[in-house]
Amino acid sequence: MHLLAALIFFTRLPFWRLRDVPGECFKHVVPYWPLVGWLTGGLMAASLWLCAQVMPLAAAWIVALTVRLLVTGCLHEDGLADFFDGFGGGTTRERTLAIMKDSHIGTYGVIGLIIYFLLMMQMSCLSLPLLCTLLVCGDCWAKCCASQVINALPYARKEEESKAKVVYNRMSHREFVINLAGGLLPACLWLPHRLWWACLGSLLVLLLLLHIMKRRLQGYTGDCCGATFLLCELAFYLCSLILI
User: Fold this and answer.
1) What are phi and psi of 155, to 5 degrees?
2) Alpha-carbon distance 7 to 181, whole Å?
3) N or C of the chain: less Cβ packing under 10 Å?
4) What is the dihedral of CA 43, 45, 46, 52, to 10 degrees?
5) Which residues contact 147 (CB under 8 A, 6 or more apart)?
6) What confidence category does residue 242 fall into, taking pLDDT thresholds of 50, 70 and 90?
């Protein structure tokens, strides 16, 4: 039931039609986030492979990125823009939280998204099979890394002030094992050994962001989780480029 709640929460696909999910289940969706990555990363890899048969790889890569944007409803990218706006424009905890809650995008958010996608486009220089592999492994591993935010920090707002109207529970031991397995298994199965070091890049970015969030907010928000996922994923990809 918690996995179904995660699929409903993190995608825009009609999983909600399968059955009603109690509201309490949505407090446990984060441990299953890497398993959602099997779906989103798999859809990206499949669309990349199919489109690359009839168009240049760079164009196919743009299509693959667009597929995830459509499947997730730009959920994580919205969080990244709000994160850049809040931490770029705010100087205090209260001001940062207020900016992040504002639905309007600011200069920091626009510039941050532009730089993010420009860096992501550099992945199109890789071979098609390797890029498809990195898509699945990076999506799942980065979501596993970003999931640890809820274990390391408290929620920075009151529950009623949350955009999603839900505050995630910290993981139980069982949920942590599920989370770690969901994030690491694709890498164990398909990632070339020489690229395993790229996983450390994601961990370093996670530690840096945790420090920044603790110092400024004394906690995290949903936007912080989305931003952490995308930045950990980007670090994984860039480190892979360096190692190849």
Assistant:
1) -70, 135
2) 17
3) N
4) 140
5) 30, 31, 33, 34, 171, 179, 183, 225
6) very high
Band (157; pLDDT cuts 50, 70, 90): confident
φ, ψ at 127 (rounded to 5°): -70, 155
pLDDT tens digit string along 55-111? 999 999 999 999 999 999 999 999 999 999 999 998 899 999 999 998 899 999 999
Task: State both tokens at 83.
Answer: 């994160």
- Does the pTM exceed 0.70? yes
Task: Show Cβ contacts of residue 169 under 8 Å, excluding neighbours closer than 6 positions.
Answer: 27, 28, 150
Alpha helices per DSSP H over 73-168: 75-89, 93-101, 107-121, 128-147, 149-152
| CB-count exposure of residue 83 (10 Å: 0-12, 13-18, 19+) | buried
What are the tens digits of pLDDT across the range 103-148?
Answer: 899 999 999 999 999 999 999 999 999 999 999 999 999 999 999 9
Computed from CA positions of residues 117, 122, 125, 126, in that sequence, does the dihedral angle turn out positive or negative?
Answer: negative
Give backbone dihedrals phi and psi of 54, rounded to 5 degrees, phi first. -130, 0
- At 60 the three-state DSSP class reads helix
Give the Å distances, CA to CA, from 31 to 54, 76, 80, 156: 38, 16, 20, 19
The answer to whether the beta carbons of residues 34 and 183 sit under 8 Å apart is: yes
Answer whether 84's CB lies under 8 Å from 171's CB: no
Q: How far is CA 107 from CA 25, 58, 87, 114, 230, in A?
A: 36, 27, 12, 11, 19
What are the respective helix, strand and coil percentages of the chain, to the nearest 5? 75, 0, 20
